[in-house]
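pinging the channel bc i need a second pair of eyes. not urgent but kinda urgent?? the chain im working w is below, pasted from the shared doc
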Amino acid sequence: MNTVVALSTPRGRGALAVIRLSGPQAISIVQQMARVDSFEARHATLSQLRTADEEILDQVLVSCFPSPHSLTGEDVVEISCHGSPAIVRRIIDTTLALGAVLAGPGEFTLRALSNGKINLAQAEAIRDLIAAQTEAAVKQAARQLNGELSNALDPFKEKLIEVIVLLESALEFVEDDLPAPQLNQIEQTLRLVAAGVDQLSASYSAGRLLRDGARVAITGRPNVGKSSLFNSLVRSERAIVTDVPGTTRDTLSESIDIGGVPVLLTDTAGLRETSDNIETLGIERTHRAMSDADLVLLVIDGSSEVGPEDRDLLERTADSAPLVVVNKCDLPSFARCVPEVDAINVSARTGEGLPALHDAILSRLNSAGTGDGSLLITNARHYDLLCSAKRELDLGRACLVDRRSEELVLAPLHNALRLLGQITGETTTEDILSEIFATFCIGK
């Protein structure tokens, strides 16, 4: 096994950088660079690292974690050095000259998986934790890293194994059919396992939003307060706001956190007939933003009566099922009434109604379960495997109810057990592992 090395902190300048080595030569390589015979395990040691010709590289902190009590299960060394890219490059080059090789994407985590330090679901949680955009997403990734998904799946796999053992035993003694009460108990067990798997997979719609986020586009006629609402939602004067209709000529996007869901909010040019070529291009981009959005906020001016342009816009956007937002509720002239649609009254200027708008956005994005503390499936691979396992469980239970032979019942049950095992890595092929770890960053 090679000794690998990589920068584990983000690239670029910083106060500090951490370089990590893992493998049989990790400690030896750093001892040669520091000109020492040993390091105290699991303690930070102040050292000077040198090149082969005795040139000082940097004064660093060296932390050694001997096998098997380390992140990867191998000898691991972490070097905390000054965060100059030039220093980092020279230290890594020196380790390469002493026998290390550059780590590939996710190689440290892959070694931890291979050495039984974590399972595959926990390995993927490390990637999700690094990529998390909101506090809620961090909490979900941390729960999966701590093994909650694995623990949730264990009872299902144990019950499935119990059923498989019973049915396999029945095959060995073909002259003795399983009694009806025992068959009914097996059928009930399979029903409960399938229901549990289905409940986990049903959380994916909320989990996907936590992980991947949603696109929300703000649209409407010119001068209804779209840009003001955009600024209020992002809590910053990002968009130019004037009383001149058509001020916004292009789309403007900003990422925000709404109830734990990362939302890419887009302000758009007002929709109207125009002969201005530049404004026309902006309106075309508005339509593209609306078509790409998971949710459209249709803003209406609440300080004047509903007009034909408003109703025409409501009709033209009906296919996108927009969330209607009636703005300017702080004005004395506010008397907007759109009886045919549910609407949220807000004031982009004072912030009135924004909490209700947040709740409505979350509800329309179908993310009601993101903040209730439950474990969510955030990974599309896990979701697909759970859905496939549920289908196999339903097939096996149907064969059992129809009193088919044990072989016909067992085949889908074995498939279901294999599929659940792929989530945590017990039955995952090398090709799938390579595909998963190719999405990791180098140094993790």
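so The first helix runs from residue 26 to 34. and The radius of gyration is 29 Å. — does that match what u expected or am i reading it wrong
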